[in-house]
């Protein structure tokens, strides 16, 4: 018995070591890809700027170049090379010019792997730093992120809280800097999150798979079936559809097209209770969908917010973004009743929880 216990303890230690090794290897792999990606985007920015400098010095010229490149690169490489991203690469090169990157003139001809070593932060950090308007503040945040080992969440928090401006006014700068080094709950980036960084997946041309909870996944699946069973009005377009607003990534749970209303239906599921923040986020989604996904001849998209709090499911349409009350009234008449959807959501949740309890009892 003692030998068996010792074996189990040894196994636990070995397993812990292997898990740590795999997590470290995955994180290091993504860090390596991230550095190459950042160096590549800097080089793309350099080529855009140098090409512009050879031509006409007019804003229209640069915009035409970006648009043509965006069309061609997106056709060949897929997502990640739209006009917004290419403009960002151009800004990245201008904000980190060669004189800031290279110590000697000979380094300007570095191969991509050697150039990657010049960018120690992940691409997402440089994207966030680009939002800092003044060069001095940007340099401060970059230096502190490197020195203190800030995650992207820490960097984002410090920039959002105007840490640079606050520390400039502080009489005890050392204490503030020391406090900024301490991470808060939720600051750490897991190995899984690192591997699934949308920027990295986009760069590598990989599909973006999102890790949902079992409950969310099951509710979304059941809701999809329910809407399709209501008739042929709802046409399924996709789930967990990714979009980018400024420097933040979001995922829409479900996207349908309503054939009779001729509009997109954006559906967002919340496991908790409804809040006004949910409505604000939905309006961001609808503005994006109207600008980027809506096709000629279609009506404006409509949102459906689902809140699956236990015992108090809710469904709310976002109709106040429509151009007039007549269209809103038509939408309200044709779309399924909110209570009908909320009741189905509650039934699905109850059924799933009952099944989970039954399986637990069986095991």
TrEMBL record:
Keyword flag Lipid metabolism: no
InterPro entries attached to this UniProt entry: PD-DEXK-like_domain, tRNA_endonuc-like_dom_sf, YhcG_C, YhcG_N
MF-aspect GO terms: endonuclease activity; nucleic acid binding
Domain YhcG PDDEXK nuclease positions: 193-340
Keywords: Endonuclease, Hydrolase, Nuclease
Domain YhcG N-terminal, chain residue ranges per copy: 17-166
Protein name (record): Putative nuclease of restriction endonuclease-like (RecB) superfamily
Organism name: Edaphobacter aggregans
Lineage: Bacteria, Pseudomonadati, Acidobacteriota, Terriglobia, Terriglobales
